[in-house]
Amino acid sequence: MKLGKLRRTDVAKCVEIEKLLFPGDDPWSSRAFHSELDQGHYYLAARSDDEEFLGYAGLAVVGRRGEYEAEVHTIGVVPEAQGHGVGKALLRALLARADDLAAPVFLEVRTDNDTAVGLYEAHGFKKLGIRKRYYQPSGADAYTMARPAQAPARDEVAP
Fold this sequence. Notes:
With 159 residues, this protein is α+β, with helices and mostly antiparallel strands. The chain has a single domain (2-156), classed as Aminopeptidase. It has helices at residues 11-21, 30-38, 86-100, 114-122; strands spanning 2-5, 42-47, 53-62, 69-77, 105-110, 126-135, 140-147. α3 links the parallel β4 (69-77) and β5.
């Protein structure tokens, strides 16, 4: 598996995956993905060695130097690739980007998505609270989670 920049030509596949993963809610549209890319957010694609599209992930960074904050906007993995480390690799790449900026990272996740909650907790996220009826139209609740800023590795810090 390899990670690389999400291409605009990948958006249709992302929309397909959204519909599979979030059938009871409002999956992201093509317009939503294009808007994220237009805003310059950090989006990655996971592909198999033979270029099969496996998943995507996006991170938004806001603020100014020394005060950055990051938010995981989305992570999606095709059902047949789930449980094989794709989501973990995508999350780690997003966190590495946030760590390069020494930014804390925030996200929302369905309270009934035990697999995702476990993944986030294993990577240093803590539950901050609950957003009631966050996901629509299902009305599912979401945990708000955060991971404190991590300083870049010493040898990566510019003098």
